[in-house]
Amino acid sequence: MTEVERLDYDVVVIGAGGAGLRAVIEARQRGLSVAVVCKSLFGKAHTVMAEGGCAASMGNANSNDNWQVHFRDTMRGGKFLNNWRMAELHAKEAPDRVWELETYGALFDRTADGRISQRNFGGHTYPRLAHVGDRTGLELIRTMQQKIVSLQQEDKRKYGDYEAKVKVFAECTITELLKDGGRIAGAFGYWRESGRFILFQAPAVVLATGGIGKSFKVTSNSWEYTGDGHALAMRAGATLINMEFVQFHPTGMVWPPSVKGILVTEGVRGDGGVLKNSDGKRFMFSYVPDVFKGQYADSEEEADRWYTDQENNRRTPDLLPRDEVARAINAEVKAGRGSPHGGVFLDIASRLTPEEIRKRLPSMYHQFKELADVDITAEPMEVGPTCHYVMGGIEVDPDTASSSVPGLFAAGECSGGMHGSNRLGGNSLSDLLVFGRRAGLGAASYVESLAERPKVAQSDVDAAARTALVPFDPPRQGVEENPYTLQNELQQTMNDLVGIIRKAEEIERALAKLDEIKERIGNVLVEGHRQFNPGWHLALDLRNMLLVSECVARAALLRTESRGGHTRDDYPQMDSHWRNKLLVCETTTDDPLAPGVRVTPKDQEPLRQDLLELFELDELAKYYTDEELAAHPGRQA
Ligand code: FAD
């Protein structure tokens, strides 16, 4: 029998970013015992890296803002493919979640009259992002960790043990979810330092593992983003949706090569920075797509006036949604009007004083100074698209965050639906707070409703341990593979063939390459033993990367249109017949290393009538089919 440390909890939260921590707080406040597991150090998650801010229609910077405007912006950004109920809950609840953070001890930047200050971001009608300089995510995590410590202090007083109700398991990776008769029964993993196995026996698991960016060569994401939650859920029988939609942030660093892909926050453009090509032209005015015509300024003068007078001017096209800006940069570079290192220029130096730049964008100032030897107060930055965020994820019930597997919940970037085909900047941090809380509540209610707890079968534990140990002793001798080589081939394939611009022939080549990697993954061999062994860790992450990459590629091949974070060179237009179609991914075999993937289209539930009526008929007609709009009052009048 495999040697395994065994622990019992009511809820296991996998992931200690914003979504995970918010779920922990909620489940603990309902009195449940909660384990929070993270494969990196506690406090090191993507949420910490979030710079620009957290979108919430508090109306502090412009009193015309409200949840309906935020809802409309989110749906437009997602090209009306969003799960509208999620977008509705998000827009309605985000302001309360931001306020609540201040009750935990957060301190956002202030307006002159002492309210939470809000900044402009792409696709948001009004300044809406609550922020702390360009280190907003750090404040979110710091505050939620502080809240958890205060809950642990309460538990110490009540039970004599700080960890009686909430315990953190850092540098601990979950590799498998275990079930009992179709219901979640626990989670299996290993300590990264010792390599020893650990089993959490629990009736409810909340996945909050973030995204999949490490499947692409050029990315703003760090090493943990290997799609673990997506893959864990799929292997446990849950479905993924929207996997073809991958956000390429328009502004990543392009030089030097060692830092290629690192994010340059949209806050630079929100605070006045403009994009220019090698001719010095502000090219974004030439790239306003038809669906946004009339909503954006058509001259530099109007765009510049908008920063100080938003009532009487339209916003700058530099702040179009990310998919539009990324495609525009791609087109400029392709047309030979790029910067020396294959990007374009982002100029804040000629727009703000050096003091203002250092005050408003301190991280960006240091990032460029230290990594590229560029002084952004004196010269423009060179920027280009970088893989940043996945809109696709685990299909969940909007209100409870439950997946199709009883006891399995998901929130944050690893869940799907909320952002449709393209996420607006700032809408992730608010998503984490709104749906992290709902996942914690959903898991708590589920656990409380159980008459009997599921049990973990020893045979499942043994099987999970066997799968984890395969890379030390692969079945076929003489054909061993290096995990780093396979990872590199996978990343390059996804980058080159399923990247920002796609076409059928290239996606098919990518799928053929992924099939080849599937054949080879069983031969991955790692040297050494289980104590801190990065090669082994990567070998285990690889099967997740492979599974989610196949989902992205298969769904991208099926969707024969261009929408949001999915651009097909061979189908360049948005097609209204695809608008309400979700592509649902599920596994077809139980192969623990490389299960097959099936992608099936299904219709999305129609937008509720009162929400539909928040939009003008003319606007909806750009996205919807005639039949879908038959019930709109504007059509019936
Ligand atoms: P994360 O914060 O990434 O947390 C994931 C957690 O899961 C980590 O603790 C990780 O260790 C753990 N984990 C993963 N796999 C396993 C496993 N197998 N076992 C155990 N633990 C596991 N969004 C905004 O709204 N505004 C912004 O200004 C903004 N700026 C950004 C800047 C950068 C550079 C980046 C990369 C993203 C930015 N985003 C922004 C996006 C946003 O930060 C992320 O989408 C969001 O933080 C994801 O949060 P999460 O809680 O879902 O996951």
TrEMBL record:
Question: Which cofactors go with this protein?
Answer: FAD
**Pfam families xref list:** FAD_binding_2 (PF00890), Succ_DH_flav_C (PF02910)
- Please give the coiled-coil regions recorded for this protein: 500-527
**Key word Flavoprotein present in the record?**
yes
* Residue span(s) of domain FAD-dependent oxidoreductase 2 FAD-binding: 10-429
UniProt-annotated catalytic positions: R322 (proton acceptor)
Q: Which residues form the Fumarate reductase/succinate dehydrogenase flavoprotein-like C-terminal domain?
A: 488-589
Gene Ontology molecular function terms on file: steroid dehydrogenase activity, acting on the CH-CH group of donors
Please provide the record's keywords in A-Z order: Coiled coil, FAD, Flavoprotein, Oxidoreductase
Question: Entry's NCBIfam families?
Answer: PRK07803.1 (NF005866)
The protein's matches in PANTHER family, at most eight in alphabetical order, are given as: SUCCINATE DEHYDROGENASE 2 FLAVOPROTEIN SUBUNIT, SUCCINATE DEHYDROGENASE [UBIQUINONE] FLAVOPROTEIN SUBUNIT, MITOCHONDRIAL
Task: Write down what this protein is called.
Answer: Succinate dehydrogenase / fumarate reductase flavoprotein subunit
Specify the taxonomic lineage: Bacteria, Bacillati, Actinomycetota, Actinomycetes, Pseudonocardiales
